[in-house]
Design a protein that fits this description.
Elements lengths: L11 H8 L3 H7 L8 H14 L5 H8 L4 E6 L5 H17 L2 E6 L4 H13 L4 E4 L6 H9 L4 E4 L7 E5 L1 H14 L4 E7 L4 H17 L2 E7 L4 H11 L8 E4 L2 H14 L9 E6 L12 E4 L2 H17 L7 E4 L2 E3 L8
Parallel strand pairs: 1-2, 1-3, 3-4, 4-5, 5-11, 6-7, 6-8, 8-9, 9-10
Antiparallel strand pairs: 10-12
Helix pairs in contact: 1-2, 1-3, 5-12, 8-9, 10-11
InterPro entries: HTH_LacI (IPR000843), LacI/GalR-like_sensor (IPR046335), Lambda_DNA-bd_dom_sf (IPR010982), Peripla_BP_I (IPR028082)
Protein name: LacI family DNA-binding transcriptional regulator
GO molecular function: DNA binding
Length: 337
Amino acid sequence: MKDEKRMRFVSAEQVARLAGVSRSAVSRTFTPGASVAPATREKVLHAAEQLGYHVNDLARGVLANQSRLVGIVATRPEIGFRAHLTAALTKALIRRGSIPILINTGQTEEELLAAQKMLIGHRAEATIIISGSPPASFFDLAQRNGQPLVVIGRSEPDADHVRAGNSEASRNAANVFFAAGRRRLAVVGSQSGTPSIAEREGAFLSAAQALGAEVTAARGPDSDYDGGIAAARELFSAGEKPDAVFCANDQIAFGLMDFVRIELGLRIPEDVAVIGFDDVPEAAWLSYGLTTFRQDPATMAARSVELLERRLASLDAAPGYERVIPELVVRRSFVPA
């Protein structure tokens, strides 16, 4: 019979034996602020280094009924701005001393609640949600377990939240198009209907109509590159073609730009001006040169962690709110007048 190989982490007992001290001395050595004689501490640290010992944080979290885990709940975290926001969040949380755990989930109530129960089961210190619209039961379960929530990209009355200035940027897009003499405007969003996408669409439409411009809207099946192509095909298939298009994110803009240039032979910005939203790195590529509103993922992550810190310091405080106004980054696809 073959020997079964099992994972065996170095234990505190092994460190104690090698150092010639008690098990409690090892525990005190690795507990911040605990009292331990300098000579004992030196022996324990030397033995731990020899053996490759690290503290069992999971066990400590169980004893304290809390861990340093912070859950990040996201749908398709590999796509567009979410990928950069996820990366920025993990870096910010690690600098804080937290252990970020990414849960890649769907947007249904069942999927979001399953992710939350998983994090509560592991005694996660907090949860940060960067996509999806959590149901009321999500917030109720978090409150009953005393688990802080931070929501990014939407306003939630029962949770701390961070969001971009979607309406301000969208109105600005309509204004700069109109000031440049563009009169046939369009906005491209998606059928996904996320709060951020819906806010950008609505604010642009309202602003364009108030200016007296012709304005239309098109929506692809999702807020990604393929969705941009599908929306462009719908937008340019009938009637008078728009001469300026505001896209609800950069991925949509990339799909639209490739379609109008390659399939329709139109020039950007001479025939069609384009503005996006997010300023992902690809927006600066020579093949796009996309004028877009910049969301800084590092700033969004930092504001989220600040809200988390405030919540942990005062669990009963009123929900906090941070709004980050995007700035227009001008490139070739549209240069304001």
